[in-house]
Amino acid sequence: GAGVSQSPSNKVTEKGKDVELRCDPISGHTALYWYRQSLGQGLEFLIYFQGNSAPDKSGLPSDRFSAERTGGSVSTLTIQRTQQEDSAVYLCASSREGLAGGTEQFFGPGTRLTVL
Amino acid sequence: SQQGEEDPQALSIQEGENATMNCSYKTSINNLQWYRQNSGRGLVHLILIRSNEREKHSGRLRVTLDTSKKSSSLLITASRAADTASYFCATARGSTLGRLYFGRGTQLTVWP
Known about the structure:
The complex is a heterodimer of chains A (116) and B (112). Chain A is mainly β and 116 residues long. In chain A, 0% of the residues lie in helices and 49% in strands. Chain A is built from no helices and 11 strands. In chain B, a hairpin with an 8-residue loop joins β9 and β10 (101-102). Chain A binds chain B through residues 4, 31, 33, 35, 37, 39-45, 48, 50, 55-56, 59, 89, 91, 93, 95, 98-110, and chain B through 2, 4, 30-31, 33, 35, 40-45, 48, 88, 90-105.
């Protein structure tokens, strides 16, 4: 597609339920990133994929969070047993490469997660 | 953890005025990038300045980088109401593959 897409755009769930968030990066982009943003805050890094592997998952806040990427393309972020503090906008970004030089990242519109 | 700190946190100006936002960071970097965010959703990349550059221009945007002071500034000239958004600086470190470190952002409001 023309840009990074994410689904769903909004998700309301009850505390304790599991949720899956999906990201479709720009075709050909080898690097994919997940961030989250709480209200009025900056972006908090969660995980970075290069191809299908995740060389940096240091930002995942707990073992309730996991992510995978298949075929070097689509990625899903799974949050198990959601808590109210998980409520945030989850943003996905992709870039042509994920080298240490740090290239421009292209962001999706985000998924707004609300845990009741 | 977040890397950059932008100031001011909020800036309110009239159309036609210039807007200057600053960013400070704590560790050595490969490059520094500025992003814009409308309505709390996806970010749009504005400009990237490398650690060996001191100034860069793109249209009405001017970015400076002072690595000795670990700071950067973003200047938007002749602002427009459509420039109203949050602006974030993000740094890329040589020691960390791929990821960017974002500040908390500056909320810019441009009044018509």
